[in-house]
């Protein structure tokens, strides 16, 4: 992952903790959960190998559920945004 060298020490430590002997899908899920608070995500394929490490945009802490949420989901029908975690509406962003 080319972004590896551009991310911070903590993120590199998380990525380096990947257990190649373990279940690849579980390891990818674990890494995603650990990277999210640092604002990073990645994709992985059927082979369970992470790729496309990237910094998340539009990060926020939801005022209702206090969870880190990577982005708002835009709703064209209602012209508002909502928290991905608890679905609380945020009319200030739209």
Summarize the structure in words.
Strand 3 (60-61) and strand 4 (68-69) form a beta hairpin. The strands form 3 sheets. This protein has a 3-stranded antiparallel sheet with strand order 5-6-7, with no helix packed on it. Strands 1-2 form a two-stranded antiparallel ribbon. Mean pLDDT is 75; it is low at 71-80. 21% of the residues lie in helices and 27% in strands. It is of the alpha+beta class and 94 residues long.
Rounded Rg: 15 Å
**Beta content:** 25-35%
Tally of helical segments: 2
Low-confidence stretches: 71-80
Report the helical percentage: 10-25%
Q: How many beta-strand elements?
A: 7
Helix vs. strand class = alpha+beta
Quick rundown:
With 94 residues, the protein is of the alpha+beta class.
Overview features:
globular, 94 residues, alpha+beta, three-stranded antiparallel β-sheet
List the helices and strands and how they pair.
Blueprint: H1 9-16, H2 24-35, E1 40-44, E2 50-55, E3 60-61, E4 68-69, E5 72-75, E6 80-83, E7 89-90
Antiparallel strand pairs: 1-2, 3-4, 5-6, 6-7
């Amino acid at each position: 992952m080319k972004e590896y060298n551009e991310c911070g020490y903590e993120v590199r430590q998380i990525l380096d903790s990947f257990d190649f002997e373990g279940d690849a899908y579980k390891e990818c899920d674990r890494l995603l959960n650990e990277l999210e608070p640092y604002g990073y995500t990645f994709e992985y394929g059927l082979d369970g190998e992470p790729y496309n490490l990237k910094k998340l945009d539009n990060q926020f802490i939801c005022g209702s559920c206090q969870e880190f949420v990577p982005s708002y989901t835009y709703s064209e029908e209602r012209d508002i945004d909502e928290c991905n975690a608890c679905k609380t509406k945020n009319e200030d962003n739209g």
